[in-house]
Specification:
Shape: elongated
Number of helices: 4
Radius of gyration: 25 Å
CATH architecture: Up-down Bundle
Distance between the termini: 39 Å
Largest sheet: none
Strand content: under 5%
Order of helices and strands: HHHH
Number of strands: 0
CATH topology: Methane Monooxygenase Hydroxylase, Chain G, domain 1
Helix content: over 70%
Length: 143
C-alpha cells in the first residue's frame, strides 16, 4: 500500500473513531449502556486498523515526509482531537468502573452481614445473624 492510500485510510479511521468516541462519551454521561455496547465491535476493529497504519507510517517516515504538508497537518489535527477524546473516554470509563466496583462491594458487605454463620464471633463482637432473614441479591453487570 502506498503512503497516500495509507494516509487516506488512516484519515477515515481517525474521523470514524472521533464519531464513535463522541457517541461513547455521550452514552457514558447519559449512563446508557446499550449505546456503549453498539460501539464496541467497530471501535475494536478501527483501533487495530489505526495501529497497523500508524506503524506502517512510522516504518516509512521518509515517504510520509514527502506527503503534502496540508494532508499531514490535517492528520495531526485529527490525531490531536482523537487523543483528547480517548483521554476523556478512559477517564470516564475508569470512573464508572470504580463506581460499579464500590456498589458491588457494598452489596457484598450487606450480603456478608445478613448471612447466618456458625455462632463464631463476628468482627463487631456479635454472635449469630443480625437480620431476621437473608435477602436474595441479583446484580446487573451491564457496564
Amino acid at each position: 500500500m502506498d503512503m497516500n492510500e495509507r494516509i487516506s485510510e488512516l484519515t477515515y479511521v481517525c474521523e470514524r473513531m472521533i464519531e464513535i468516541l463522541t457517541k461513547e462519551n455521550d452514552a457514558l454521561e447519559a449512563e446508557n449502556p446499550k449505546a456503549l455496547a453498539e460501539t464496541i465491535t467497530e471501535k475494536d476493529k478501527l483501533s487495530r486498523l489505526y495501529e497497523r497504519h500508524a506503524r506502517g507510517i512510522e516504518r516509512d517516515a521518509e515517504s510520509f515526509a514527502k506527503v503534502d504538508e496540508d494532508v499531514r497537518a490535517h492528520l495531526k489535527e485529527l490525531n490531536a482531537e482523537m487523543d483528547k477524546l480517548v483521554e476523556r473516554n478512559a477517564r470516564m470509563l475508569k470512573m464508572n468502573m470504580e463506581l460499579n466496583r464500590r456498589v458491588l462491594f457494598k452489596f457484598a458487605d450487606v450480603a456478608k452481614k445478613m448471612t447466618p454463620h456458625s455462632g463464631t464471633y463476628a468482627q463487631d463482637a456479635n454472635i449469630g445473624v443480625k437480620a431476621e432473614a437473608t435477602a436474595p441479591i441479583s446484580l446487573n453487570e451491564t457496564l
